[in-house]
Structures are given as C-alpha cells and as structure tokens.
Fold each of these.
Amino acid sequence: MVRAARLHHLDPHLALAVAWQESGWQQRRISSAGAVGVMQVLPGTAAWMSSYIGRPLNPYGLYDNVTAGVVLIKVLNRQTGPRKAIASYFQGLGSVQQHGLYTSTKAYVHSVSALHHRMKRGWNPV
C-alpha cells in the first residue's frame, strides 16, 4: 500500500487510513454494494482508474485493488480538494456535488482524518 501511494504521489498514511476505515485492511472483504478488497473498490471504479494508469486493474488482486483506490483518491483530490476527495470516495463524487455531504459522510471524513493524523504520528491499529 505504501509503495502504491508513493508511486502515485499520495500520502501513504492517508491511503492506510482510508483502507483501515474501509476494510480493516482485509482484502477478502466484500460490501453489500459490491465493493471489494482492502480499498473497497467497485469493479467499475477499477475499470475507470485503469484509464488513468494505462493498464487493466483487477480489483480482486491486492496490489491492483490498492492501486485503484490510491489513484481514485488522487483523482478526486485534484477535482475537489482533500476533504471532499475523502467524502467523494465514500459517497460518490456526483452525489457530493449534487447533495452535499450526508451525515454519514461527515462522520466518515472525520474518522479517516483522525486515523490519518494518528498514523502520521506512528499509530498502528494491528
């Protein structure tokens, strides 16, 4: 995860925080919405992120799952800025733009931000 984040110029602690919030770093996790893996990436999102890196991404593979999530955060950050990027990762960019942040999204952003801060200071949840 750290390698993928550095390769795509994203703070590794942020990638770790999102992954911990999303799945507890469990690659076999599948959500009721069909999001898979450590970064809880939808297969369609992995296909979209493939266009940014120039090769197919398999969201069921650990490295590709992490790469898809990292690149998505990077793309969203460029489009919206850091706070809304994390919100959009959770809620969806179109929904954030159309409806603003839901209460659950605000809680998600707060949790990821707190995890990010703690991880930057050396905290490891496992």
Note: The longest helix spans residues 62-80.
Amino acid sequence: MNLHESPAASLRRQEDAQPQDWEATFRNMALFDLAADMELGFFLSYYRNFAIPTIASTLHSNAEIQQRPMKRSYDTAIVIYELIASGLDSDRGRDMVALLNRVHRNVPGNKDDFLYVLLTLLLVPIRWTQKHSWREPTAAELAAAARFFTELGSRMNIDGMPATYAEAEAFFDAYEAAHVAPSPEGQHLMDATVQVFQSRLPAPLRPLAKHIISTMLDDDRLTAALGLPNSSRTSRAALKTGLIIRNAICRRRPLKEQPHFTPGKAGSSLYPNGYSLDQIGPVNVPHSPAARSNELS
C-alpha cells in the first residue's frame, strides 16, 4: 500500500474512517500516518511492565529478558507489528496469536495483570502521540485502536476487555495507581534492557540512555519504580524542542510511500537478512507442531 498523501489528506481520510474499517484505520495510523511516534510508544510500553512488581517477578523468574534482552525486545515488537500489518485473522496473524497463547499458557498472574500488559500496547503509544506527534490521533483512530486490542484480547481469551478507549483508560490509570512500585526484579529487568536502547543511540549519547528514557517516560513515580534517574528541566526542554522542529518538518512533507514495517523483511541488527516466523519467540517455549510458524518473546 503506497499512500504518498499530504498530511492534510491523510488527516481527512482518518477522520472519515468508518467503524467497520477499524483494522485498516489502525494499520494506517501505526504504519503510515503516525508510525514513528507509535513505534516510540510501543518501545515505552515495554518498559512499563517492569514497574509492576507482580509482572516484574514473573518476567524475572523466566530469565529470558536477562539472558537475551535484544531478542526479547525485537521479537516483542515484531509480533505486534506482524499482527497490525498482516491482520489478526490472516495466516501470519493467526500464527502470532497462537504464539502469544503458547507463551502465556503457563504464566502465573491474575486477569488484571494480563489485561494491563495488553493495554499498555494500546494506551502508551497513543498517549505519546497525543502529546508529541505532528498531529493528534483522530476519534476514529482511537476507536479503531481500542477495537484492535479488544479483538486481540478476545483471541487470547483475556476476559473483561474494555469496550471503549475511555474504559481502557479508566482501567489502566486505576491499575497503575494501585500497583506501580519499585522492586528488585523490575530494576534488574530495566538494567538488562537498557543496553538495547543504548545500541540504537549515537555513541556520545549512550552514557545518557537512562536519562533519555526517564525524560521520555515523563512520570516521576514510574521512573522511581524502574530505578531511573529523574529527568531534568534541560532534558525535557531538549526533547520538546527537538520534537517541535521534527513535527514542523513532518507537516510540510508528504507521508512516506512505504509502510514502517513489512512482514518478514530485514530491519534490525538481530535479523539483518529478514526473518521467518519460526525464528520469533523465546527459546524456552517449544515450537508447536500444529503451527505453520512460531514464537514470540
């Protein structure tokens, strides 16, 4: 799909999107119109789980993140982008849903923990775009995103999925108010994963990786739970200025012709020649003989 639209034209298209076209609307949002900021938001949502002690304890006991932080991080992103790009009910989408169900089949945790993890993928990217992107998401995009994750939750047999974006926000905020707290496990996971972010930074900025993440999270309680330094006024001003300049440029350029993600294609140092679905996933989850392809992280 090559859109090659002006920002104004893309905004009109997304404003006029119909409810029944929710999957295409969310795909356009995440892969074209707001792609860069949605990716940053997905990245931040990954860290947020470490600030919940019960979730951090489960992730830490598995040891996958500590032993293979880069694979875990990239594979998690690949799974969500495969679902968005290919569609939940496509062959590749069904393989990814089956993988998610296998990965979580024997994971301890209550319903609210599973629901929270899924909703970080809905709310954190959208809240980032609302605050920092070249334009805010439209009402149709919010509804489409909520529908996408409701449908994904249904396929993962997660009960109690919110019916609307507003309901998702209410659950998410109440859950974090009750559960965000420091834990040794969460801080160990954060320390193990920072190296993935460092690898994407220019060498002079790598020592500042934790400060940069803290500034992007912009939440003192969250950064304290993760063992990160507080953001400074200077770092917040630098981020704001950089995004203002970037957004001004974005508003004057046509959208990119190619999607932000193409299933199976190269796009990371971990899979420089592309990947097959049976390469994706934690090494401690066996491949299912019934699946066409496999595994997440």
Note: The chain has one domain: 7-279.
